[in-house]
């Protein structure tokens, strides 16, 4: 794939070098188009050496090759990371004063902006209006992460990690690729591009949360995210407006295609996920909580790497005790927050093995009642089943007493199609 990596002038420009490496190491051909200001942070030789292509910021270099038109026309993906407030404003108003903005005007491929700036700049109505304009034209604007910014500030405005940006870019390309879309339609009797979810706004969570112990370690789980990504892609293929809250997804994104844009919000921990879901759920018709959420997190985050202690005689084999605290139950919280309102329809997933107290369906029925959601999709899991695999058996349990629907063993996109069929019967005819 031919990728244009636009880099605008923010301190997070250094992270774009890792994103560039991620693309080139996966065999993609990357042309870097920095702005003049970006070169204040990372110089042209770095971009040229890492990409293997010459680098220019203006429209006057190698004019015989008409770069201000060609670079955008030839691209399969344009990603701008970091996208500063200034760059977003220029893109939203269609300016073309340098090579990057000209490229943005000529590109007809998917365009991804990864904003990074101080919280005040991000939240300013001018920036938010520019983001809304860009999204309304089909661009994908990734939500910035929350956390430490330059200096002592913290808040939304951080550039997401390069691995997450890479995953988000692949998801966007997969969602836009007509070949992949056709494959999804052809392979799957349920997943045809029939537009029956057109106008429905959905929020899907996918992947597994990570609970940080120290700067290099976390408590995690084995969720690959494939089922959640398939749910997002099938919904988009059927015309829904999809927000995918992606918990630590990397190679999982790709697979079958879709017909509409998927907005990807990368998150890491259960608390990040809760914040993202709480913000987004106000504007959606359906929430599908497919993510594997850690029930516990370390009580204390250790700011520096936890080290072993060494006694003078080398005999010390002590190990730290990690105290855990409960994470919120996000799904149950959504049900409480909805109250008596009809929307959003809330769908949970339950990974169950079955045990001496009950079968998978029996345990899922108890969980459905405990969580209070409208539909619970019970996944049969075991040591070798489901995690990271491409097929899956699920049972759909409805709160309104409809009979259980069992699907599988089936591909994750078949399962996704069956889940959307189940959700659709819960959506009133005129949505
Ligand atoms: N879930 C959630 N918040 C949590 C834990 C789970 O929102 N803290 C959601 C998951 O996204 C999923 C559903 O709840 O949709 C069920 O997850 P599961 O891990 O099976 O349920 P638990 O409540 O953790 O139940 P248990 O550990 O007793 O099996």
TrEMBL record:
Residues annotated for CTP binding in this entry: 295, 305, 328-331, 349, 367, 371
UniProt cross-references to SUPFAM superfamilies, sorted A to Z: CoaB-like (SSF102645), Homo-oligomeric flavin-containing Cys decarboxylases, HFCD (SSF52507)
Residue span(s) of domain Flavoprotein: 1-170
Cofactor, how bound (note): Binds 1 FMN per subunit.
Catalytic activity from the UniProt record: N-[(R)-4-phosphopantothenoyl]-L-cysteine + H(+) = (R)-4'-phosphopantetheine + CO2; (R)-4'-phosphopantothenate + L-cysteine + CTP = N-[(R)-4-phosphopantothenoyl]-L-cysteine + CMP + diphosphate + H(+)
Single GO molecular function: phosphopantothenoylcysteine decarboxylase activity
Ranges that cross the membrane: none
EC numbers for this chain: 4.1.1.36, 6.3.2.5
Keywords: Decarboxylase, Flavoprotein, FMN, Ligase, Lyase, Magnesium, Metal-binding, Multifunctional enzyme
InterPro entries the record matches: CoaB-like_sf, CoaBC, DNA/pantothenate-metab_flavo_C, Flavin_trans-like, Flavoprotein
Presence of keyword Cell membrane: no
Annotated region described as Phosphopantothenate--cysteine ligase, given as residue ranges: 202-431
Pathway(s): Cofactor biosynthesis; coenzyme A biosynthesis; CoA from (R)-pantothenate: step 2/5; Cofactor biosynthesis; coenzyme A biosynthesis; CoA from (R)-pantothenate: step 3/5
Organism domain of life: Bacteria
Residue span, DNA/pantothenate metabolism flavoprotein C-terminal domain: 197-424
Coiled coil spans: none
GO biological process terms on file: coenzyme A biosynthetic process; pantothenate catabolic process
Cofactor: Mg(2+); FMN
Role noted for this protein: Catalyzes two sequential steps in the biosynthesis of coenzyme A. In the first step cysteine is conjugated to 4'-phosphopantothenate to form 4-phosphopantothenoylcysteine. In the second step the latter compound is decarboxylated to form 4'-phosphopantotheine.
Similarity comment: In the C-terminal section; belongs to the PPC synthetase family. In the N-terminal section; belongs to the HFCD (homo-oligomeric flavin containing Cys decarboxylase) superfamily.
Name of the protein this chain belongs to: Coenzyme A biosynthesis bifunctional protein CoaBC
Organism from which the protein derives: Candidatus Phosphoribacter hodrii
Phylogenetic lineage: Bacteria, Bacillati, Actinomycetota, Actinomycetes, Micrococcales
Gene this chain is encoded by: coaBC
